Queue: 2 jobs
Job 1
Amino acid sequence: MNFDLDDESRLLKETVTRFVEEELMPLEPAVLAREANGDGFRLTEEELKPLYDKCRELGLWGLDCPVETGGADLPAIALVGVNEALGRTVVPFSFPPDSPNLHMLLETANEQQKEKYLEPYARGEMVSAIAISEPGAGADPSGMNTRAVKDGDDWVINGRKIWISGVDTADFTIVMAVTDPEKGSRGGISAFLIDKDTPGFEIARKIPMIGGSSTFEVVFDDCRIPAGQLLGKEGAGFGPMQTRLVVRRLQMGAWCLGMATRALDMLCEYANQRTTFGHLLADRQAIQWWIADAEVRIHCLKLMLWDAATKQDNGQDVRTEASMIKLYGTELATDILDNTMQTYGAMGMTKELPLQQMAQHVRTMRIFEGPSEVHRWVIARNKLRAYA
Ligand SMILES: Cc1cc2nc3c(=O)[nH]c(=O)nc-3n(C[C@H](O)[C@H](O)[C@H](O)COP(=O)(O)OP(=O)(O)OC[C@H]3O[C@@H](n4cnc5c(N)ncnc54)[C@H](O)[C@@H]3O)c2cc1C
């Protein structure tokens, strides 16, 4: 398999790498200080505005959006480099729009929904959230209870969702609900588009998470929406939801690659400077083995990402590859970040370095988009099936 990037993809990767180094990295100390002082893990409006201006100037917008929506329609292989570069910094910034919901909309939106949601979303004029998880159904979304019932020309939604990211600022939320309890995930779960401020759609509480982020618990209390807010076919919500999970899992693998390579760079730089007991840390076999293992595993992750992206660009089903990447990438980044923090000693425990922020972020990544144990189970189940 040939993993060479074409000229356009290589140029894009260089542009994004430069953007991260020149525009995002200088903001890292302020972002870390803000979080350490309890002022939120965030960029200010004054910091965000010039970043968006620069993105537009460089064409770093709508990278995976279709050309007809003003996007660049880049192949998955090019996006690996983009997300790897973004993963190298803890500055909470990504190029609009967020890919997973974009792909779910592309797969399901009808003409009216394209005009009302997809096109402004692709232009970065709208932001969205996704509400799948419930207090009683997280890793296993097929157990969800939130119910949507047809009433004349409307749908009425009742239930509760939890751990929902970004719903406080979202213009619309894609909400998964049961439309046929008998069929469940096999034809009985549908997706709906719910606008912010829709009566009966309430944020019940904000939940602070590790790493300075927050999620939200959301309640649907006789939330009435017109029939036109059904996204895709009734009962066929589970498939497009899986599409968006695959997109996010590949993206997460590339973020992990970025985090791991930054941590390894920092480990090697420090090991070559710091002397203990008359020797550089770089001379210690314990440290060398961490470096060797990190280098090998990073190389494996890179190949896994390029393989999956190439297959995706060829129209192949990469659900299993995405599971393997999400599992391997998050666990690899966890280990490399931990070893780098250990190498830095007390300095590695400070909130002045990005390491602890990355470590907390990757810790949450081992839960969302499917916990590691569920991915191991799915990978094993698929393998065993071939021998049954
Ligand atoms: C930071 C963050 C952001 C999130 N954002 C969103 C969002 O925007 N929208 C949304 O809908 N959800 C979101 N979630 C929720 C996330 O998808 C769920 O937390 C996740 O799917 C796990 O569900 P759960 O927490 O209910 O754990 P459970 O399903 O209760 O599982 C608990 C643990 O049991 C083990 N386990 C479960 N099943 C198996 C199995 N088959 N085999 C072996 N072990 C198993 C695993 O160790 C797992 O961690 C977010 C979560 C986090 C942490």
Job 2
Amino acid sequence: MNVTVIGAGYVGLVTATVLAKIGHQVICLDKDEGKIEMLQAGKVPIFEPDLEILVEQGLAVGTLRFTNVSKEAFAQPEIILLAVGTPENADGSANLSAIFGACQEIADGISNRIIVGVKSTVPVGTNDKIAAFFKMEKALVEVVSNPEFLSQGTAVHDTLQAKRIVIGTESEYAISRMMELYAPLGQPMITMKRRSAEMVKYASNDFLALKISFINDIANLCECVEADIDEVVAGMKYDERIGKQFLAPGIGYGGSCFPKDTKALHWLAEESGYTLRTIQAAIQVNEKQKFKLIQAARKDVPQFSGKKIAVLGVAFKPGTDDLREAPAIPNIQYLLDVGAEVHVFDPVATANVRRFFGDTIRCGEDIASCLAGAEACFIFTEWPEIRGMDLRLFELMRERNVYDGRNCFDLADVEKADMNYYSIGRRKLQRSRVR
Ligand SMILES: NC(=O)c1ccc[n+]([C@@H]2O[C@H](COP(=O)([O-])OP(=O)(O)OC[C@H]3O[C@@H](n4cnc5c(N)ncnc54)[C@H](O)[C@@H]3O)[C@@H](O)[C@H]2O)c1
């Protein structure tokens, strides 16, 4: 099929590339010229495992093209997939300006009957508004809610092995075309009303966010009552009703989805006259959780001003260079505000960190140089390089104060390494100082 994907971000680029791999003729449109130039040259502007090789293959066989020229993108599509951003507004609602901007371009650019599948996460009722917009513009468009469930860091795998493909429309014609599009993936497809499909996306993301905030809440309580969250989770996850995933305690969720999707659903509920108390609680727990490490560190380090502080991991999770809503960001900002000299190590997000903080921080090439002479170390991302590091590297620090927001190490190993160590929901370890 001829497919146009609008938006070459994490969702659009991966979707376009995978659809090209399974045999469709795909053109991906983005208004960011720099991004398109890179992609046309076979370079991927984001860090996403396995993506670059698939882009190269798609370009080489000619099933995948990139453009920033609308006319080219709208020449002959049968299906257009919309994957533009829907960031949050100041009040927590979803900002739909990119969605309706792209819809205007579609209405102006197409001449034949097409299907528009909306992959962007949009509040319930938005697809109906999009359909009304096309009707007003007299564009022959059938709108399908087709939410995306990939996770950054495993996006290619998640798309190729999708657990489910949700097709939200009551049009038999649109259902059959969307099924034709995704059939080569051989994954389960579920059809439903547009509004239900929109809600599946929010309910799924918000459930996961709720699970994270729940386990963080329990971890915090463990600290108060001398229980150990690792042992608690080990005992919980045997229960299949609870499940094994998303039970890792830490300094909270971040990224481009959970923070904004929890706030958008909460906002939507309020607008509809309903208070979504569970999601409200998840948001509140997460906001407080982000500053747990700094709170703990303030008890040990009398002042940060003029001190070298090491930060290991900045990306909102391992496997991505994305810093959007990463818990590390407000923490680094706090450290800078109080006059600390911040040294950062992140295996893939360094370029984005530099772009974000400019020359106010220093980025090291390795963990050792980041730690050398530091007064305290904060761990915000559980990269394998950090989880697997030799704990003797902490001996390079001026003071061995380590605040681990992702529980990267075994307490028994940390005890042998002899340092002040705070992690989430576990016993705080004090350095013996006996040398
Ligand atoms: N990132 C994820 O893990 C993820 C997962 C599932 C769903 N989603 C949802 O998918 C949507 C996209 O997310 P993302 O992370 O890929 O966003 P992104 O910010 O990485 O990418 C969006 C892209 O759209 C482009 N764009 C905006 N308006 C355009 C227009 N009119 N024409 C052409 N290009 C345009 C931007 O230049 C940008 O490159 C969001 O609604 C998000 O909530 C994201």
